[in-house]
Amino acid sequence: MELCSTMGASDKYVEAVYLRAFPFSLAGKAKTWLQSHPNKSLNTWEEVEKKFIGRLFPTSRFISAKSAIMIFSQGSDEPLCETWERFKALLRTCLNHNLDDAAQLHIYYSGLRPQTKMILDALAGGTMMSKSLEEAIVIIDSIAASDYQSHHERAPTQRKGIMELDTQNAILAQNKLLTQQIEALTKQISQLP
Question: 29, 56, 83 — which closes off a domain?
Answer without folding.
Answer: 56
